[in-house]
Each structure stands twice: as C-alpha cells, then as structure tokens.
Amino acid sequence: MRDVSCRCTCTAAAAAASDTCPNQLTKRPHFLKPGDCVLMPYSILESVVIVEAFICTGSFVKTKNLFLEKIPGRSVSGKSTMQELIEIWRRTGSVQNAPRNRPPSVCTPELKRQVQSIMASSPRKSTRKLHQQVPASERTCRRVLKVLKLKPYRISVVQQLIEPDLQKRVHFCSWLLRNVASGFLNPLMLIMSDEA
C-alpha cells in the first residue's frame, strides 16, 4: 500500500537543503535523491477521504484534487497506491490494513520447561550443545535463555591473596615511600602493572 518514495510538491532545492521534506514529517533515507520524500502511511481519515472521493468521481485525478481540498498540506501518492487502497476497501469493506498472520511461535512453555531443566542439571552447557538436545534452533535457545533470565557466567581464575602476600605488599610500599622521599625514585616515572 505504501510507495517507497514519491515526487511531492516540494521543490528539489527545498528538499536538498534539509533532510526532511517540507510536506512530510519523515526523514529522507540516504538512498533517495533530492526531491524524493517518504510517504507516511495514510491515517484512517485520509484513507476514507480517498475512497469516498473515488466512489463519487471515479477518477484518480479528481480524487487527488478532492483530497487536496479536504486535507490541505498533505500530498497524495501515485495512482497505484490509491488503486491498492480502493482494492483493499472492495475486498474487505475496510480501509484498515489486514492483520498480519505470523507463524506460531516455537518458544512454547514446554520448550521453556525443557531448557530450564537441562540448564539446571548442567549449567555450564553452551547454547550450541543445548540446541542439539532440544527441538529448536540455536537462536531460539538463546531467546529462551533470555526469557528465563539465564546469563552465561564465566568463572575467572585469579590469584588468591594469602597472609604472606599482605606482609610483602606492606614491605614494598614502605620501600617505595622511602626511595621517593630520598629522591632516588621519580614518582612520575613509576610503572604500574597488574601483576601480583
């Protein structure tokens, strides 16, 4: 029902001066040339005006003129968009878009329970191995894990600080302070590392 772009009544100079067409409220995408603008979808009122005008006149040119009289400042797209809108009205008796039919979701409560029980028994399992055990793709497994608020937890191995380490640190700090105070070490040339 929508045109990707339209040649509206705005001048090419006005459209090139800004990224927004003066007649439309949407931003012009990068692939459109100056003078092109993106049509916003018609509101219900605008769609009704177009259908009523076409029923009365039977002409697309007269429909366009009547639309511009009733709704000033709003440009009308091409003939094919108006034809499609009228065809929808003839088929369904309504100017609203038909509801979209999407396939049923794979993320069922049974799949959620299955993933939760598998992750409870072996929490370090990767999504790659998880999707081999359940009837779902790896991406669906990631979505289920996100819904269940399960996140990967990587155990990081660090050095454990023990009692003798504390004494070594205190000894090093006192040595550093003595040498900085005596002028033997320049504190601006001190290099720190994350090594213990």
Task: Give an account of the 3D structure.
- It is a single chain.
- It contains eight helices and two strands; from the N terminus they run βαβααααααα.
- The chain is an all-alpha fold and 196 residues long.
- Among the domains are: 1-40, no CATH class; 42-97; 109-147.
- α2 packs across α3 (60-70) and α2 crosses α4 (79-92).
- The longest helix is centred in the last third of the chain and has 20 residues, at 163-182.
- The chain is elongated.
Please describe the structure with a list of short key phrases separated by commas or semicolons.
single chain; 196 residues; mainly alpha; two-stranded antiparallel ribbon; 8 helices; 48% helix; elongated
Quick structural overview:
This protein has 8 helices and 2 strands.
Q: Please tell me how large the radius of gyration is.
A: 34 Å
Strand order of the largest sheet: 1-2
Bin the helical content: 40-55%
Strand content: under 5%
Which helices and strands occur, and which strands form pairs?
Layout: E1 6-7, H1 12-17, E2 36-37, H2 44-57, H3 60-70, H4 79-92, H5 109-121, H6 127-133, H7 138-147, H8 163-182
Antiparallel strand pairs: 1-2
Helix pairs in contact: 2-3, 2-4, 6-7
